[in-house]
Amino acid sequence: MSITIHQVDAFTAVPFRGNPAAVCVLERAASAEWMQAVAAEMNLSETAFLHRAGESWRLRWFTPEVEVELCGHATLASAHVLWETNAAPRSDALLFQTLSGALGARFVEGRIELDFPAKIVVEDTPPIGLIDALGVRPLFVGRNVFDWLVEVASEAEVRACTPDFGRLKRADARGVIVTAHSSDARFDFASRFFAPAVGIDEDPVTGSAHCALAPFWARKLGRNKLTAFQASRRGGVLMLEARGDRVGIGGHAVTVLTGTLHSDPT
User: Fold this and answer.
1) Which one of 27, 33, 41, 46 is the catalytic residue?
2) Which one, of 62, 7, 11, lies nearest residue 258 by Cα?
3) Is 55 a catalytic residue?
4) pLDDT score, position 171
5) Model pLDDT for residues 53-66, shown as the tens digit of each residue
6) CATH assignment of 122-244, given 3.40.190.10, 2.60.40.1940, 3.10.310.10, 3.50.50.60?
């Protein structure tokens, strides 16, 4: 049996920017061991696996090392693949069943918009070594259920951050977000995301991190609709709306590769 696998650049309208994700649309559920092996083979920050479950889709995400509870860019990529391959009509909203509950996707004004849970950050004392590992001067440090968030004074400091990934890996969290006001008038804030604990030193564009960043910056700036730039080497743009306990995350996606996986799901 052969399976089509798609590689999609998410949160970008042009190839080779944004965040690449692999997407496998399966006929039925597969074992975690098989999905983890495929994700390790793809060696992208996340590989998404989905199959129909009644009127919705069962969706799981794997890094090359572990399964994760929430992933924005691979969900965006999954919606893009379902619509592009006509597995679902573009006019229909999509519902995904995941480890983080029900997630939605719809095509609005030429882009994909995700409906995700907000992951509110609460101010907290960072663990010993975290700030030294980042090499930044924090204005604010807090965390949510997944990540640490560190606000710094400028986008230049975000861009100049050169973490010690060995030390950062020991932080008691999935990852660390570093953020600041954007120096570019097109964007409200900029960020970067580091997650060596799950096998990703730096993630190019991280939808799930914006489940924290959207409500954080909405409170600071006094408005709910925001435009964000993730300042990795590849870079990516996200259109955000803070909606209380939910976050709207919008962006574009483009397929860069479609191939055949010669391995039967187990």
Assistant:
1) 46
2) 7
3) no
4) 86
5) 999 999 999 999 99
6) 3.10.310.10
